[in-house]
Amino acid sequence: HEAEETIQRLRLITRERRGYLTILQCPQAWKERIPVFDNPGSSWGLMKQLKHQMDPHDLFNRGKLFGTETTCV
Fold first, then answer.
1. Is the pLDDT of residue 27 over 50?
2. pTM summary value
3. Could you tell me which residues come within 8 angstroms of residue 38 by beta carbon, excluding any fewer than 6 positions away?
4. Which of 2, 4, 22, 36 is the most exposed place for a label (fewest CB within 10 A)?
């Protein structure tokens, strides 16, 4: 799929420049095939901790950023 290839290329470019690509708007069909949030690498643990501190009961956007599991270890 052309959109998937384009997103992968853009994510490679942004990672090379120490950034991340998040898809803000796209057709629903894309969301079923392409992760809208890029993996922020070493920042992932910090992001999970912040999410847990601000939303300890995992009420907001459940499963969107961290899949189904958002508990900090």
1. yes
2. 0.58
3. 11, 14, 15, 20, 21, 22
4. 2
